[in-house]
Amino acid sequence: SDRRVQQPQKHRQKHRTSRRSEMTSSRTRQRLTLGFFSEEEVPYTPVVRIMPGGNTLVIACDRKLSVRDIPTGAVVREREDAHDDDIRDLAIAPSGQQLATAATDDTVRLWVAETLECVAVLRGHIEHVNSVLYSADGCTVATGGGDGTVRLWRAADGKPMFVLRCNLEWAISLCFSSGGSRLLVEGHDDQHSDGIWEWTLPAPLAQSVVSVGKDPHDAADAGTIVELEGRRLWPANTGIEVHGLSLSPNCRWICTFCEEAVNLYDLAENSGLIQTHEIKKLKLTHFYAWFSPDSRRVALLTDTHIKIRDTATGTLCLLPNDHQNVINDVAFSMDGRQLATCDKRNNVIIHTICSWTS
Prior knowledge:
Order of helices and strands: EEEEEEEEEEEEEEEEEEEEEEEEEEEEE
Number of strands: 29
Number of helices: 0
Strand content: over 45%
Distance between the termini: 37 Å
Strand order of the largest sheet: 10-11-12-13-17
């Protein structure tokens, strides 16, 4: 199932909110509601991203890719048939000049952000492509699919670089370490056990297109690639029951959902797994968390609020959940000061985060 719509059972205990630690400041948000596509409920999961600069929004739903002006909601540019099937994920290059979309047609496509011209179609996955991500320098595109592989491509021309294999059945989300030397993948194995897998990458990564052997899963024109074996990083004990987990972009924080608690762990190199915060489950509507690009903030959803927590200090900011329908996707802006939420009817609300509670 899609990671953005996993929903927990309702919490039976009434939560008593501490006014001192969890207050909503009227200065913490400025809301703007934009309607997209149709007022009717759509059978597809929308994906929303905020472009660098915070002035435009990219939203994908079904096969459609649309860029909208945030102040007015006007269409800036649009592609009706960006893919042959449902778009599952969307990534924006750090420069803001290129977009990448992953879809259930087993392909990833690269787009010129200014014109929405398709410049490359990446073929190689033999099942749905669930996730796509750019490296910090924008030179590499990572993709994860339902075929149990993670693949690396050169962003400049879409050429394949690596196929990453492990005992992974389904890749959900991806992140590069800060130095680009590691790639961590959130997914589940053939026993449907959630976890984090890790690969060590050669350097310099962008120049590592090496002819080693033909990948039988690749299309005829995909060229030759290198295979790298990875390992399961967390949890090592697959018997740990985890209903959902999220990995921060800096590969440091893991947010897990287990029974009645949401736990935030610090995954520091050479120091193992350390629990830093424990947040009691407060009628969460999703077994998922969304991190800001700098990993300093993490957003959780409840029926009435969007809870944004500082990962280092635990400071909390509450934003009202004004959606009338279930929220399907959440995205921070590059600087972490804006938050976009999109519901199943493709209504988008842009929040401006101005202050934090003490």
